[in-house]
Amino acid sequence: MQLIEIFDQLSHGELVQLDLGNGDQSINPRDYPRIGHSVNQALSALHTRFFLKHGEIRIALAENLTRYVLDSIYAESNTASQEPTKYLLDSANPFQDDVLKIKAVYAEEEEEEPLRHLDPPPLPLNVFREPRSVRTLDYRTLVFPPPDKPGLIRRVDYAKGHRRLVARDWENPERSQIDLPYTHMQALLFYVASRLMNPLGGNEQGNHEGKYYMGLYEKEVRELTGEGLEIEQDFSTEKFRMRGFV
Question: Three-class SS string for 29-52?
């Protein structure tokens, strides 16, 4: 979708009562940055809640190193970085520092040649008292058990962040592409409306438009979750075991 579509939907719907138009139910371009920043926040909220974009990065395990941060300063493509160990293997597709959440970790060397086109079961993730378990310290930091030998490869699958909107997007909203499927547009509109309404507070009857639209957003998110409109997968080891993979 394009940014102008979001502006048009807001001006004819959720924001029709606000002074953001030109008298013809269109948003004045001077208000594009104000609304655009809220669109950024809505996109971040939706991409964090749902697995909408998939990313992956390969890590070469190093000797005497167990903690790995998914940061481009450790990427082999980053020739400007002075880090002594470049363990992110991204020469074919440079890493963009776009991790929202680590979803699964795979041991690539365990894939047998005839099955290399299939994903093996993921390694245990944050499983207590499991010696092979990988731990996450935060949304982009992994701790691996000491490898049998350095150079082993681990593939990390993660939820990938959206492209953030910047000034050139409000300047040309007709050409600005948004990283969001149309199925999630209504949730985005409710979120943006809530952010823009919140500073207005409540009225004499105690109604608060910001909270009202946030309630609609949460309801829409629950419905989207129920409909499975995401690329989410269950990476748990227990799920694989129940299905006979482990």
Answer: HHHHHHHHHHHHHHHHHHHHHCCC
pLDDT at 70: 97
pLDDT digit string, tens, across residues 194-223 = 988 865 554 444 456 788 889 999 999 999
Q: What is the pLDDT of residues 103-150, one digit of tens each?
A: 999 998 654 454 455 667 899 999 988 988 999 999 999 999 987 777
**pLDDT at res. 25:** 60
Whether residue 117 contacts residue 171, with contact meaning beta carbons closer than 8 Å, is answered with no
- The whole-number pLDDT of residue 205 equals 42
**Which residues are 153's β-sheet partners?**
60
d(CA 92, CA 203): 56
Closest by alpha carbon to 177, among 160, 193, 163, 161?
A: 163
Let me know: does 65 contact 85? Beta carbons within 8 Å: yes
